[in-house]
């Protein structure tokens, strides 16, 4: 109530990127002292054994994670456990630092329960992020999202692969206490490097994954997938992915389709460059979770992401086949107490359905 009726109305009249930066600053400060962490934990945190799972060799206290894009420069790893998140992906981080696409980079579509995102991998770069993470220990599993640098210097697929490999090599050499990697091949906002540099065609994806395989990464790798490709193209990408050392796939990234029925027409007409998060991602994310689970649920961990605003949204993704669920936009609209509430309500939903643990509900709609 406090967030929704007092804080959010003020936030929503200020510039969205300014608010994001201010929240990050406050979160970093709160994460710097044990008494502020404890205070936050007392207010927001919820835990229950029913939510604990071991996935890809990693222990997760609960299945709700912060998705890539919110903590893109690794400032919040110390406060997010107190907020109640079960895990977090930092990034997307790129080898070459990038100041972000021309402003505006972030907008709000309140009627559509969505954000307009046009960051294009604003990143301090791998080297800076390593410096920050090197001295830290983590209470929850932290993932590193790696993407192709948004740089005009990368003109070919081969150069782009080289750039991504360079990032992985640097992270591996740094021996950070992080838990997993996320390979982001699905950012729709890259303006440099040419539109032809995409890893959606299986031929290009093969080249990339073959090179990554050779690195023998020490941590599990997840791939952040697009929700904008048709089913057949997505299946072909999955057919390629299962041939390599990939632990799982995340469905998925932002919605590109400006005719999506959940988008308010007037809000879309006013929207500048960028793509949409939140409710417009939800239905397609759910379809692709089900598709991936039915086809490769035994080989790949499926992670759901897109349009989670409450426990029912998260539970729907879990029953469709997601072992873990990630989110950003729901938290921005509902407030930081949402994470604890989702976890609490999730325990109730699991109990009502007679499940002793979240893992028993995974894929309940699509038994394989
Ligand atoms: C402000 C913002 C920045 C984002 N940046 C990234 C990014 O750098 N890398 C990435 O993989 N996804 C990024 N995304 C996409 C989210 O991780 C997520 O896939 C998408 O927003 C759907 O989830 P949501 O509806 O819970 O926000 C971003 C989303 C937002 C809202």
TrEMBL record:
Gene3D superfamilies: Aldolase class I. One of its GO terms (biological process) is pyrimidine ribonucleotide biosynthetic process. GO terms for molecular function: dihydroorotate dehydrogenase (quinone) activity. Keywords: Flavoprotein, FMN, Membrane, Oxidoreductase, Pyrimidine biosynthesis. Pathway: Pyrimidine metabolism; UMP biosynthesis via de novo pathway. Residues 51-350 form the Dihydroorotate dehydrogenase catalytic domain. This is Dihydroorotate dehydrogenase (quinone). Its EC number is 1.3.5.2. It comes from Candidatus Woesebacteria bacterium RIFCSPHIGHO2_01_FULL_44_21. InterPro entries: Aldolase_TIM, DHO_dehydrogenase, Dihydroorotate_DH_2, Dihydroorotate_DH_cat. One of its GO terms (cellular component) is plasma membrane.
